[in-house]
Structure formats: C-alpha cells, structure tokens
Specification:
The protein is an alpha+beta fold. The strands form three sheets. A three-stranded antiparallel β-sheet has the order 1-4-8. A three-stranded antiparallel β-sheet has the order 3-6-5. It contains three helices and eight strands; from the N terminus they run E-H-E-H-E-H-E-E-E-E-E. The protein is globular.
Length: about 120
C-alpha cells in the first residue's frame, strides 16, 4: 500500500500554510480535531461529495510515512479506512501541490496520482 496521501483544500488556506511552513487544517479539520486526507482511490469521491462545483481547489500529495503515529487510518464513509492526522502538518512532508480545475462537465480534473 502506498504511503502517499492526499489533501483537497481551497487555495487560500494552503497558501497561508506555505507562508507559515505548517498546515493546521481547513475549518472542518479544526472542528473535527484532525486533518482529513484521502488515499488516491478515495480522492475523486471525496472531492465530488464535499467540494462539488468549487473552483480554486488544490490537491496536495503528502508522504504519509513521515507523519509517524499521528497518522491514523480510521473507518469513515462506507466503512473505508481514511487517513486522519492528529496534529499539525509539517510542509516538509509535502511531495507536490497541483491545481484541481473544473472541467467543462463541472467535475474536477485530477492530475496523475500514485496509488
């Protein structure tokens, strides 16, 4: 199983995190007490369910192996295990950041992701 996990986020909070070197999460993450991530197979469904029609999103690839014990895989949607980070994301673990533009059909256009 790949250790690469993905964060879907609006651009503004991510650019703030880049300036600070740390990502504390989006408002939903702060409210839930952990940062929500998806695996590659989960990312499209997560985006469609929680970010449908939203422009200005980014897809951030993170090396989950560097997150240590703060990263937990927990049962969520449909009984699947989703990665959750109980802590602050150090941007040194980020592999890449790419835009998630909306296509002509209104769906987000994903870059190639490692599964």
């Amino acid at each position: 199983m790949s250790q690469i996990i993905y964060k879907i986020t609006p651009e503004a909070p991510w650019r703030e995190a880049e300036a600070n070197g740390r990502f504390f999460g989006a408002p939903i993450d702060v409210a839930d007490g952990f940062i929500h991530f998806s695996t590659a197979p989960q990312a499209r469904e997560t985006t469609a369910k929680h970010f449908a029609g939203q422009a200005g999103l980014l897809l951030v690839a993170i090396d989950g192996a560097q997150l240590g014990e703060a990263l937990k895989y927990e049962v969520s949607r449909g009984g699947a295990l989703f990665p959750h980070l109980y802590g602050v994301l150090d941007l040194n673990t980020v592999l890449w950041v790419k835009p998630l533009p909306l296509g002509a059909d209104g769906a987000h256009q994903f870059p190639e992701m490692e599964e």
